[in-house]
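We were asked to recover a plausible sequence for a given structure. The inputs and outputs are reproduced exactly as logged, with field labels preserved.

PROBLEM: sequence recovery
POSITIONS: 338
GIVEN STRUCTURE:
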């Protein structure tokens, strides 16, 4: 059935890849002590224009400015403060809170009697007031669990840091579902904040265009098994030069196709299980068999074509030809239960 989103996707071939995605580059090791500022060069005087407005916000929220300085690497201004704990909220596009993780943190903090890991914060939108933390949700909740009145924070004057959550979050390793949901939440936040900017301009914050598509899938189907489809999507998607308010239509359309593929794959898996075939990698097995990219070298077809082919192949998947020894050869894939 034709939809507005599918027609929008058809008009935007730039959002699908013609080549494999570029690999993330690791910074070269620099000569020792060759970058940044000397300790004394990091000094920032009280009342400096770079942080004056920010310090006024901290005072207005009932906080105490402990110090201010220039970051020793990039020279960016920072403010160290103690603020009332009820003035801070996590950014609205973070992963869901883990009860186990924040309770474990609370136990550790209680044992030491000290909060030694300040959370990074920015000022929240004016209509909300207070502060947002892009990477301190579990520490914040741990301190609330302990009944703390205040919390130490590193306040960054630039709100753009809020979109860099994937790079900043070091509390707990992300799995694919968490990463994808954070990316799509960031994306929807960007639609409210700066929807005219090209999607490619947000590449650093979003990490991988495939994560945007998978994020939409997880929004619609929380039990979606994204690990089986991530290797395919990341090969055929790249960030678009279209405004994100238009590029999102492509991701929505590709997510629809991906979920249609999964529906047909799930049906094939059910038939394999009815035959008595057992393996933790049934989904990976079926997806590998229907994946048209296995034999393609050089230029890749558009993502829409790849997913449509996979959907149709999955619908026609012949389970009668599959034997248990075929499944035994599958290893290193993504288990059906991620």
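RECOVERED SEQUENCE:
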């Amino acid at each position: 059935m034709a939809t507005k989103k599918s027609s929008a996707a058809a008009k935007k071939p730039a959002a699908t890849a013609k080549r494999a995605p570029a690999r993330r580059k690791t910074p070269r090791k620099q000569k020792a002590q060759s970058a940044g500022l000397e300790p004394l060069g990091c000094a920032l005087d009280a009342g400096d224009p770079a942080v004056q407005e920010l310090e006024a916000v901290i005072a207005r929220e009932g906080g105490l400015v402990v110090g201010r300085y220039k970051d020793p690497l990039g020279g960016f201004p920072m403010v160290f403060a103690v603020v009332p704990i009820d003035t801070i909220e996590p950014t609205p596009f973070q992963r869901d809170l883990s009860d186990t993780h924040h309770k474990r943190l609370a136990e550790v903090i209680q044992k030491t009697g000290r909060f030694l890991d300040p959370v990074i914060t920015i000022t929240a939108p004016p209509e909300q007031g207070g502060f947002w933390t892009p990477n301190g949700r579990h520490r914040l909740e741990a301190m609330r669990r302990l009944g703390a009145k205040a919390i130490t924070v590193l306040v960054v004057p630039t709100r753009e840091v809020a979109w860099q959550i994937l790079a900043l979050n070091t509390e707990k390793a992300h799995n694919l579902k968490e990463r994808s949901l954070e990316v799509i939440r960031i994306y929807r936040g960007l639609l409210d904040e700066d929807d005219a900017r090209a999607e490619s301009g947000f590449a650093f914050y979003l990490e991988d265009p495939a994560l945007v598509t998978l994020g939409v899938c997880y929004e619609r189907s929380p039990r979606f098994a994204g690990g089986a489809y991530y290797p395919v999507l990341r090969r055929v998607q790249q960030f678009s030069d279209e405004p994100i308010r238009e590029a999102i239509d492509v991701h929505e359309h590709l997510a629809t196709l991906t979920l249609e593929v999964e529906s047909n794959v799930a049906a094939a898996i059910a038939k394999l299980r009815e035959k008595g075939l057992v393996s933790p990698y049934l989904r990976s097995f079926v997806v590998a068999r229907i994946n048209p990219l296995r034999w393609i070298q050089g230029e890749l077809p558009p993502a829409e074509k790849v997913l449509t082919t996979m959907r149709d192949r999955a619908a026609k998947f012949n389970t009668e030809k599959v034997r248990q020894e075929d499944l035994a050869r599958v290893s290193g894939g993504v288990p059906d239960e991620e």
